[in-house]
Design goal:
With 196 residues, this protein is α/β, with parallel strands linked by helices. It has 6 helices and 7 strands. It has a 7-stranded mixed beta sheet with strand order 3-2-1-4-5-7-6, with helices on both faces. Strand 1, helix 3 and strand 2 form a beta-alpha-beta unit. Bound molecules: S-adenosylmethionine.
């Protein structure tokens, strides 16, 4: 039996109000393995432009390597948002916006709301600063998210993407019909584009 959203304890812990500095050694992954964000950014830039998809959200952002790659390719720092549960030590793009949310808990709430047909009241269970970002992004990326749970990633993409926005995870994923992505564009070794 799935609890109702208002009985769901995770609603209390989406917001990380006193974030720590990110000490996770894997948060540097893309600085240690730069071919990852570089290949995803190249993949993005060959199909998507800062003029057509200006507003970017990088999920599980770690120390911010993806934002740096997109900035090099013309995306405006002020239009870039990064989310992780912890803060980067030295943000490589200081003018970008960094948020600390627990993304796994957020995805759990989104999925629960979907299963319980409570999506229309979902935002009332979320911190305002999360709900304010809903549907705002033309491009959502997730590099080495550690969340090899496709439903987590697709639920987050579904929530944050504007209509017509695209989700670019870093590896091949299962087909996410359940969240209403209806367009599968292309597959490369480090990228897929899903369009909402
Ligand atoms: C392997 S690192 C990848 C970092 C970055 N994307 C890169 O490629 O360099 C995974 C990141 O996910 C973050 N993370 C793990 N669980 C999380 C959660 N529940 N909510 C938000 N961030 C989380 C960690 O703090 C870590 O920075």
């Amino acid at each position: 039996m799935i609890p109702k959203l208002d009985e769901w304890p995770y609603t209390l812990v989406v917001d990380v109000s006193e974030p720590l500095i990110n000490e996770d050694p894997y948060s540097y992954f893309s600085f240690q393995m730069p071919e990852y964000p570089v290949s995803v950014a190249r993949f993005v830039e060959s199909r998507i432009k800062p003029t057509t998809h200006p507003n970017v959200l990088d999920l599980f952002a770690g120390q911010g390597a993806m934002a740096l790659e997109l900035q090099k390719r013309g995306w405006e720092p002020g239009n870039m948002h990064c989310v992780d549960r912890s803060l980067p030590k030295i943000p490589p793009v200081p003018e970008s916006n960094f948020h600390t949310f627990n993304l796994v808990n957020l995805a759990t709430i989104i999925r629960t709301a979907g299963i319980r047909k409570q999506l229309e009241s979902l935002d009332s269970f979320l911190p305002k600063k999360v709900a304010d970002l809903r549907g705002k992004f033309d491009l959502v990326t997730a590099i080495q998210s550690e969340m090899h749970d496709d439903y987590t990633l697709f639920a987050l993409g579904w929530y944050f993407l504007a209509s017509g926005g695209v989700l670019v995870p870093d590896s091949h994923r299962l087909t996410p019909e359940v969240f209403g992505y209806n367009f599968f564009e292309q597959k490369t070794s480090h990228g897929l584009i899903y369009k909402k």
